[in-house]
UniProtKB/TrEMBL annotation:
The keyword Repeat applies. Keywords: Repeat, WD repeat. One of its GO terms (biological process) is actin filament depolymerization. InterPro entries: WD40/YVTN_repeat-like_dom_sf (IPR015943), WD40_repeat_CS (IPR019775), WD40_repeat_dom_sf (IPR036322), WD40_rpt (IPR001680). PROSITE patterns: WD_REPEATS_1, WD_REPEATS_2, WD_REPEATS_REGION. Pfam families: WD40 (PF00400). GO terms for cellular component: cortical actin cytoskeleton. This is Anaphase-promoting complex subunit 4 WD40 domain-containing protein. WD repeats lie at residues 51-92, 166-207, 211-244, 376-417, 420-455. The lineage of its organism: Eukaryota, Viridiplantae, Streptophyta, Embryophyta, Tracheophyta. It comes from the Eukaryota. GO terms for molecular function: actin filament binding.
Amino acid sequence: MPLLSETYACVPTTERGRGILISGGPKSNSPLHQSISPHLNLDNPLDVSVYGDHGYQATVARYSPNGEWIASADVSGTVRIWGAYNDHVLKKEFKVLSGRIDDLQWSPDGLRIVACGDGKGKSLVRAFMWDSGTNVGEFDGHSRRVLSCAFKPTRPFRIVTCGRIFWDHSNFVNCIRFSPDGSKFISVSSDKKGILFDGKTGEKIGELSSEDSHKGSIYAVSWSPDGKQVLTVSADKSAKVWEICDDGNGKLKKTLTCSGSGGVDDMLVGCLWQNDYLVTVSLGGTISIFSASDLDKSPRQISGHMKNVTSLAVLKNVPKTILSSSYDGLIVKWIQGIGYNCKLQRKESSQIKCLAAVEEEIVTSGFDNKVKLKNMLYHTARINCLAWSPDSSMVATGSLDTCVIIYEVDKPASSRMTIKGAHLGGVYGLAFTGELSLVSSGEDACIRVWRLSPQ
C-alpha cells in the first residue's frame, strides 16, 4: 500500500479588498487558514494536515481552547466541529447563518462558539453551545454584514463584533481582537486606523500612532502572547509591530517588509502572532514567517498554489526537483524533502494545461490543445494524467474519481496499487521522482509525495 510521505499545501484563498483571519493552536506552532482548512507546522512546513469535508468553500477555522477540536465555517453559513488529530472525526455540524461566515471564536471555557458574517435580517451574529447548537444569546446593533468577532478571554465573558461602521472608525472595521488578559481590545479598519478600547466598559482608551500609521487599509491584527504588543498588516504591503503603552496608545516598534513581485499581490491581508513567530499572508498567498525575538532577521517564505494544480514535471537531471503548474498559469518549483523553493516568472500569465521539463527548458501547452486518453477499467471516471516510472516498470494513472492507480507492467492488474481519495475533486498531475517515489497534484491545489511498496 502506498504511504503518504510529504504534502505541499495550498496557500490561503485571498480576494482583493478582503482580509483573511488566521489562528494558531494553543499547544503547537500550527496556524490554521481557510483553504480547505490546512494546519501547517511552522517548525516543519512539510508537517501539513488538510481537512476537505466542507461542501462549500471554507472561510475560517479555529482551535478549541484545549487544542483537541477545530471549528471551521464556510460560505453557506455552516459550522463543522472536528478532531484536530488523526482522521479528523466529525463531532458536530450546525447551520448557523443563512450566508457566509467571516469569523468565529470559541469561548475561553470551550463550551460556546460565536460566529458572524452575512445573513438575512438581524441574523448576522450567533452564539451557540458547541455540543448541541442551542442559542445562548441575542445580538442586535448590526444591520449589515459583520466582519469579525471576539470573545473576552476572562470572566465576565463578553463578545465584541464589528462590521460596516464601528464607533470612532469611518470605514469598514475588518478585524477586532481582545488582549490575552481581556483588559482591552483593538479594532483595525479600512480607514487606516487602529483603535484601543477598555475591555470592560468598551470606552476608547487610545490609538495606534498616526505619525507612523499604515498608508492603506488595515486588514488584520494579532496580539503578542504577553499582551504588550500587536502586529498589523495592510494593503500598503507592510506589517507593523506596535508597543502598547500604559496610556493605551500604540507606538511603532518596527515596520516589516517582504520581498515580492512589486505588484498588488504583495498587499498583506492576514497576520498571526504565534509564540515566537510573526506570520503574514499576502494577497498572492505567500506566507512570510518572522522571528519575534529578532525582527531584523529576513523572513522565511512559504508559498504554493491557490488554484487547481493541472500538471507536474520532474527535472531528470535533478530528480528531487518538482515543477507544478496550476489553472491560473502559476509555475512553482519544489524540492523533495524541503518543500517550496520559488515561483517561476513567466512573460505571460495564460492558463496551463500541460507542463514538461526538458533539460534546462520548460515546455507548456494551453487549454486550446486536445489530448484524449482511453479510459481504463479500474477508474470510475475520466483519466486526467499518466506517468511512467524511470525504468518503465510501472505506470500510474490519475483520475477525476480522486484516485491514483499504479500498475506493474509485468504483473497482472490484480497486483495494482490504489491510492483512494488522493486529491479532493480529482487528480490532474503525476510524475515519478524515483523508482518508488510518486508525486501527485489535484483540484485541491495540494502537492503530495507518495512512497510506493510494490507487492
